[in-house]
Amino acid sequence: MSGASASRRRPSKDNTRASQSKTNDKGGPNVERQYVGIDLHRRRSVIVRRTPAGETLETVRIDNDPVALALELAKAGPDPEVVLEATYGWYWASDVLQANGANVHLAHPLGNNWGHRRVKNDERDATDLVDLLRLGRLAESWIAPPELRELRELVRYRAKLVAMRSGLKAQVHAVLAKEGVAVPMSDLFGVAGRACSTPARWDGPTPPGWSRCGT
User: For the whole model, what pTM was predicted?
Assistant: First the structure.
């Protein structure tokens, strides 16, 4: 289970086109929204800003930092449309973007058609992301709210601990099997099994079948 839902939302061209312009609060003329594509990596990211017509306004590379990201986003004006891929460490970037007024779109890693590109680099990836969003062709993942993401992290961590516990138990059974030691109880890690594994019970050679542990 991940922070981004595995289900994909169908892109809506109407919604994308409707968001290309907006009217300010004072009833002034419409202002074109800018589109921002972010190729997010572990330490650095590439940001491409474009107009609704596809004109590139700026391409920058930043070190991953909330302040640096917020400063670059401010160049896009009010309520920009921002897209980033549901990849490693997208939580913090999405939260910073939304807190600074961006309409964030999370690209589904497997749901978009990237075509057959001869050139693949960070700038091209960010440009392709922003074009998919700008043209209404972006397959999106659902952005879970922070509260739900926290619950998911708890479930993931518990599952990891349970898997670790199961692996350790399997290792104990494997060691006993290699030594030809039969386990006389149904659950080696139950009450009887734990009683047999105390140091006081292992003060001498282990008898076949753990005969001393049968009581």
Answer: 0.68
Q: Which pLDDT tens digit goes with each residue over 1-54? A: 445 544 445 544 444 444 454 445 545 556 688 999 999 999 999 999 999 999
Scan for tokens 């940001």, then name that residue: 47
Starting at the edge strand found earlier in the chain, the sheet holding 35-40 runs 4-9, 140-143, 103-107, 81-85, 35-40, 44-50, 56-63
Closest residue by Cα to residue 94 from 32, 154, 148: 148
Q: What is the Cα gyration radius of the chain?
A: 28
Please give the structure tokens belonging to residue 71.
Answer: 């400063």
Is the alpha carbon torsion for 138, 78, 123, 51 positive or negative?
positive
What's 200's DSSP letter? G
Structure tokens at 162: 């349970």
CA angle (47, 53, 54) in 5-degree steps: 35
The helix-helix angle for 146-178 and 90-99 (nearest 10°) equals 170
CA dihedral 37, 39, 44, 48 (to 10 degrees): -30
The closest of 146, 141, 31, 11 to 77, measured between CA atoms, is 31
Tokens linked to 75: 């160049």
Helices 90-99/66-74 angle, 10° precision: 40
The reply to whether CATH 3.40.50.150 applies to domain 4-144 is no
Domain ranges of the chain: 4-144, 149-213
